[in-house]
Design goal:
Layout: H1 16-38, H2 40-47, H3 49-70, H4 85-98, H5 112-128, H6 140-149, H7 151-166, H8 173-190, H9 213-216, E1 222-223, H10 225-238, E2 247-251, H11 257-271, E3 277-281, H12 294-305, H13 310-325, E4 328-331, H14 345-348, H15 350-356, E5 361-365, H16 367-374, H17 385-388, E6 397-402, H18 429-439, E7 442-447, E8 460-461
Parallel strand pairs: 2-3, 2-5, 3-4, 5-6
Antiparallel strand pairs: 1-8, 6-7
Helix pairs in contact: 1-3, 1-5, 2-3, 3-5, 7-11, 7-13, 8-11, 12-13
Catalytic activity: beta-D-fructose 1-phosphate + H2O = D-fructose + phosphate; beta-D-fructose 6-phosphate = dihydroxyacetone + D-glyceraldehyde 3-phosphate; L-glutamyl-[protein] + S-adenosyl-L-methionine = [protein]-L-glutamate 5-O-methyl ester + S-adenosyl-L-homocysteine
Protein name: Sugar phosphate phosphatase
Keywords: Hydrolase, Manganese, Metal-binding, Methyltransferase, Nickel, S-adenosyl-L-methionine, Transferase
């Protein structure tokens, strides 16, 4: 097999990585600094002068970090005592070694995946160094706002689910399949609500997404829903005894509306007996602005339970009950907030890899998980998905994301038929895919069980340019 291509990086001017590091990451740091400053009175009320002094020190730390980023300074080791600190510093040493004497790892020269993860870990370091505000989540305010901005969309999906559950036992196989496809697409399009892409600006779902699914189908790039349905259905049919388990693992992405859509999908899987267990995996620390932490997960359930809308409240109570019964399980392993691509999981976090091997299918949500699955490299878009995974295959896995970063795979046949609207000349495959990524097209891809030759997995494809309105 040919060597893997180079990592996406800010050194490629004009790339999505370059503009992320140049513009979006400093904006996010500025928002964190502003958030801390606006909470100054709250820190004083809770902690007195110690809280105010901690806020000042954290802002000073973050201002220095922003300057390091904007002036392309070398990355420096972490200097706190969290359990992941040695792993982060070992990874920095690794980056120094692979630079082959081409200078110290720095913000614009190092791999984009490492740089972006490193920034969020340094934000956490700024707070860890400054008790008594060391448990403050600088992104919580934005996540809460996003949740409440999406109230009508949340009511719509909760209502749809509860109406569906009334008669779910009467649905035949084709009807179940239709509902599964519908809720899977809702979960897919929920992934657009990503506050790291909008640099913290409001990016919430405000309309009833269910009413737009038919209009959105033309925006799908790679569609493996049929294969995913077959995998789950066959697993269900093999579950013949009470001891038999069909386990679905969902690697979560954003809190807010997307998390609701993931919970709705999980509820359907449980109620239809397509899954006997659903395991959710969230982030260990505040991450990429809106990524789901354990606090976000629990906060969301409490908000739903206390809602004055009957079906929202019913969802919250039922989901809390699933967790108490052990039908649903929440995990937050620290590997998810390390800079490593997933192909190194078996070496770096063998306990997590072993846990995922128990799964019947793993669903990876969102752009960052997709980047870590595939190494965040300058792959050709015709490369098969399984090749980019670099032997990461603990169980059958499926990636569901709306495109932000330009990496994508299995785009072969129909891509050559696409031209921009109004254009008469064919563009190169890479230009077409970059255009699609910028426009917000989306995809999902499935890798079958390790015992099945991955190359034999049929991939259905379609391609359009543009992004549907929320």
């Amino acid at each position: 097999m040919a060597a893997a291509p180079v990592s996406l990086s800010g050194r490629f001017k004009g790339s999505f990585a370059y503009f992320t590091i140049k513009d979006r990451l400093p904006q996010i740091l500025t928002r964190v600094i502003d958030t801390l400053h606006r909470h100054k009175n709250e820190f004083f009320e809770k902690h007195g002068e110690k809280g105010v002094e901690a806020e000042k020190r954290a802002i000073s730390f973050l201002s220095k970090l922003r300057n390091e980023l904007q002036t392309d300074k070398p990355m420096i080791p972490l200097n706190d005592e969290l359990p992941d600190t040695p792993i982060w510093n070992q990874y920095l040493e690794y980056q120094r070694n692979v630079s082959n004497g081409n200078g110290q790892p720095s913000w614009f020269q190092s791999p984009w995946l490492y740089v972006e993860c490193y920034m969020y870990r340094r934000i956490h370091e700024a707070l860890i160094h400054n008790p008594p505000i060391d448990d403050f989540d600088p992104f919580m305010e934005a996540k809460i706002q996003s949740f409440f901005e999406a109230q009508q969309a949340i009511i719509a999906v909760c209502t749809y689910l509860q109406e569906l559950l009334k008669n779910i036992e009467d649905l035949n196989e084709n009807q179940l399949k239709e509902e599964f496809f519908k809720l899977l697409q809702v979960s897919l399009w929920g992934n657009r609500c990503d506050l790291s892409i909008s640099a913290g600006e409001d990016n919430s779902q405000k309309s009833n997404l269910l009413q737009s699914l038919n209009d959105f189908k033309s925006f799908i790039l790679v569609d493996d829903m049929e294969n995913l349905w077959s995998l789950l259905l066959n697993s269900k049919k093999r579950t013949t005894t009470k001891e038999s388990i069909t386990r679905v693992d969902i690697i979560l992405d954003n809190a807010g509306f997307e998390l609701i859509t993931d919970l709705v999908l999980a509820n359907f899987l449980s109620s239809s007996k397509l899954a006997t267990e659903v395991h959710f995996h969230g982030k260990y620390i505040p991450w990429f602005v809106s990524d789901t932490t354990k606090h976000d997960f629990n906060w969301t359930l409490k908000q739903l339970q206390s809602a004055n809308h009957m079906w929202m409240s019913r969802c919250g109570m039922n989901w809390e009950g699933n967790l108490k019964k052990g039908v649903w399980v929440y995990h937050d392993h620290m590997f998810w907030t390390l800079p490593h691509e997933f192909s190194s999981m078996a070496q770096v976090a063998p306990d997590l890899y072993a846990e995922l091997q128990k799964s019947s299918v793993i669903i990876f949500k969102g752009d960052l998980n997709y980047r870590k699955l595939t190494g965040d490299r300058k792959w050709e878009f015709t490369v098969p998905f399984h090749q980019a995974l670099n032997k990461f295959h603990p169980a059958p896995l499926c990636s569901i994301r709306t495109l932000k970063a330009e990496i994508q795979f299995c785009l072969t046949i129909r891509l050559s038929k696409c031209t921009p609207s109004g254009g008469s000349q064919m563009q190169s495959r890479r230009e077409m895919c970059l255009h699609a990524a910028a426009g917000g097209a989306c995809m999902w891809q499935l890798l079958p069980p390790p015992t099945t030759p991955a190359a034999e997995s049929e991939v259905l494809q379609s391609h359009r340019v543009g992004i549907p309105a929320k």
